[in-house]
Amino acid sequence: MKHIALIALGEQTSYCCREQLYKLLGSRINVSNYYVEGNLPQRIEADFAIFTSRLAYQKAHMHVSPEAPYVIARRSINYHEVYKLFELPVGTNVLLVNDCLQSANETISLLQTLGIDHLNYYAYAPGMEDPKMMKVAVTPGEARFAPPSIEKIVDIKTRLIDITSLVEMLSRMGILTRYADFLSAQYVRDIIQLIDKNQRYRNRATRLEQELSRLEASRSRRHPAVDLKAAYHFEDILGRAPSLLSAIHIAKRFACSESTVLIQAQSGTGKELMAQSIHNASPRAHEPFVAVNFAAITESLLDSELFGYVEGAFTGASRHGAIGLFERANHGTIFLDEIGDAPLAFQIKLLRVLQEREIRRVGSTAFIHIDVRIIAATNQDLRELIRQGRFREDLYYRLNILPLTLPPLAERKEDIPVLVTAFLKPFFLDMGVQEAEDWMQDVLPVFLRYNWPGNIRELQNVVEYLVNVCDGRPRPQDLPPGFSSSLPSAACQERTAGSGELRSAVLRELALAARAGGHMGRRSLARRLGVPESQIRKICHELVADGEILLTAGRGGIHLRRAWSDILHPGANEG
């Protein structure tokens, strides 16, 4: 078996060219590779030596036996990788980076000879001064030599040994006849693969042109049921509660960003109103705003509704296809409401859209780039859904970039009079603030005691109910059936009056939760005990100061500092 010594200047070139020889000639010839920068022995014994450049020959030929014939290889551009250069805009100034200046200039010459001359090339090698004004580097497998100022590196991989040099090598070794057919077949196979790839690109381009024409046709027939405008602004959000003003302040900051927003709040707190306000305060305000409610779309229709479809994609599909809601929101904002209800199978597709900003219509193979700002919302605890295996953790972190929490009505009861006044306007157009306060005089104390699990939407429904059933000022007995039964009990109200009793009640609820292996937060305690969350917050601060509990950040909840049994069964361990 013939033994070839392959000698390169750098390690990367050495290994790449050796792989090329193995790919072409397999195990028929034994190849040992060396590189000047590292593993060059004092004496190299071989039947033939091939140097990958003239500089490699100058630095290493004295290590090769003088009797061994050799060739200084001509090297060609790796034609499997040159497509990357056509993705750069015409006239771009690029740094051609290589391990030595001679190789860099040779690569530039080869590229220009191949007709890849739409770029302005500048040779660069280690030891040269960083030009700094150029941000793009092109390199044949030597990215490690790129200067620090480079922002983008286009690696066209190591230059390979040219077929003419391979023929010369085999000829001088006297084995060309034996390997000529095999060598030719290898190169013909590469050419066939390139032709096949080119044909597939042409087919894809044809499909894209067809998709583009259908898209333009679809845009001229916008679906009338989809409202592409956001009606609300921050000025439309009523209330002066500190918790609400804090949320609005944060949301205004988010409006200036392009990052994804995740609104977490109970149902009826105005999540879509806040999303529309963010959109209207953003640079995308004059572009579409599209709202999607995952709880309202069946799983079988999600793909076609959000991504669109092409002609013949399924039975009943429109002859012209249809664009989806993501495309309708292009350049604008898409609001993904009730994201916690999205099926797991669809979450995977949504994750790709967030990562790649591409969608693919049902029945099509072409990807369509979209430019959308995403605002998602949920009334569910997504971390708990993740724990239950109903929501993807990677999707959660893609969505939870700019988290925003809206306070429930129970935490901003001081805003109830303002909201009631606004809800009365459509029914009594000429009613002023004074008249509105007079109208709600008898029911307002009840409103302030109620915890409003349905939040602002429930308050609006109750006001509309009272307007329709009462001729004048409503009384507590006029409230909807079942409303009074939802009010805090007298025992709870008495507990509210005495902080000592409420303190004991809070500790007992925390102990019961700990006994069950869980924990509670302030909101859960307020609902359980039928008192405002502000009062629970005050009691918790007292308990923290007394060393009874520990408050954790986020959704970690409240933790007892002593055993639950000491609270539920005081004195049981004594004696």
Protein model, in words:
This protein is of the alpha/beta class and 575 residues long. Helix content is 42%, strand content 14%. Helix 2 links the parallel strand 3 and strand 4. Helix 4 runs antiparallel to helix 5, helix 6 packs across helix 7 and helix 13 crosses helix 16. It is elongated.
Layout of helices and strands:
Elements: E1 3-8, H1 11-25, E2 30-35, E3 48-51, H2 54-60, E4 70-72, E5 75-76, E6 93-97, H3 101-113, E7 120-124, E8 136-139, E9 152-155, E10 160-161, H4 163-172, H5 176-219, H6 242-255, E11 261-264, H7 271-280, E12 289-293, H8 299-307, E13 308-309, E14 322-323, H9 325-328, E15 333-337, H10 344-356, E16 358-360, E17 367-369, E18 373-378, H11 382-387, H12 393-399, E19 402-405, H13 416-424, H14 433-439, H15 444-449, H16 455-469, H17 490-497, H18 499-515, H19 522-529, H20 533-545, E20 549-551, E21 558-560, H21 564-568
Parallel strand pairs: 1-2, 1-3, 3-4, 6-7, 6-8, 8-9, 11-18, 11-19, 12-15, 15-18
Antiparallel strand pairs: 5-10, 13-14, 16-17, 20-21
Helix pairs in contact: 4-5, 6-7, 10-12, 13-16, 18-20, 19-20
